[in-house]
C-alpha cells in the first residue's frame, strides 16, 4: 500500500485550512496513495488555545467532518483526519480527536489524544490541559489488510501506548511538534517507535511559521521497520509518499524476532 503524510502550516481560518487539506489530499491521490494522513490541528491553529472551543464540532456533524468524509469518498482514499476539536462532556473542554474515514466515506475509527502536552522552558509555555479533555483508549483499524495504530503528537513519548498496538503494520502519529522539542526529539522518537515495534510509522506534521507566531518543526516522514526514513519534508506545505511493504515487515520480524522475546 502506498501511503502519504501531508504537511501543513495551518492558521486561524478553518475554511482556508480545509481547502488546503483537500488540495493536499488530491495531490496524494494523484501520486497513487491509498491512505493519506493529515497533521494534528490541520483544521485550526488559532491565535489562542481557547479558539478551539468556538469551532468544536459535535461528534458526527460539522464542516470539518463533512470535508473528510467527502474527500475520502470522492478521492477513494483511506483518510486519517489528523486531529480536530470535538465537544467534550465538560463545557469548557474539547477532545483532540483523530477521525478515520474509509474510501466509501464512512467513518471507521475515532481516537482521542490520551497524553496532554505541557512544556515551560522560561521562554515558551504550553499546557493543553487548560482546554483539552484527555482520551483513554488505544484505537486501531484495518485498511486493506494493513493494521494501523493511532496516536497523536505528545503520545509519541509514551512507548506503553504503542505496545498496545504490538503486531500492527503501521503506526500513525499526526503532530504539531514545537520547533524546540522537534529539533531534538522528533526523528529520534519516531525511529525508536518503528524499531521497537518492527513496523512502519507515518508522521504527518505541522511545519512552519504560523500566523499566531508559533513555529512548528515539520519534518513529516514515513519510517520503515528498521528505522530507515523513507521520505521526509523538512518544512512548508506538501506531501511525502512511501510504500508500506508487508514482506519488509515480515523480513525484519523474522531476522530479529524481538516481539516474540518480550517478557514484560
Automatic annotation (TrEMBL):
UniProt xrefs under InterPro entries: C-N_Hydrolase, C-N_Hydrolase_sf, Nit1/2_C-N_Hydrolase, UPF0012_CS
Q: Can you tell which superkingdom this protein's organism belongs to?
A: Bacteria
CN hydrolase domain residues are 1-246
Alphabetically ordered keywords of this record = Acyltransferase, Hydrolase, Transferase
Q: Say yes or no: keyword Acyltransferase present.
A: yes
Q: Which SUPFAM superfamilies match?
A: Carbon-nitrogen hydrolase (SSF56317)
Q: Sorted alphabetically, which CDD domains does this protein's record hold?
A: nit
User: Pfam families under this entry?
Assistant: CN_hydrolase (PF00795)
| Family matches, as Gene3D superfamilies | Carbon-nitrogen hydrolase
What Gene Ontology molecular-function terms does this entry list?
acyltransferase activity; hydrolase activity, acting on carbon-nitrogen (but not peptide) bonds, in linear amides
Q: State the family it belongs to.
A: Belongs to the carbon-nitrogen hydrolase superfamily. NIT1/NIT2 family.
Annotated protein name in UniProt: Acyltransferase
Q: What is the lineage of its organism?
A: Bacteria, Pseudomonadati, Pseudomonadota, Betaproteobacteria, Burkholderiales
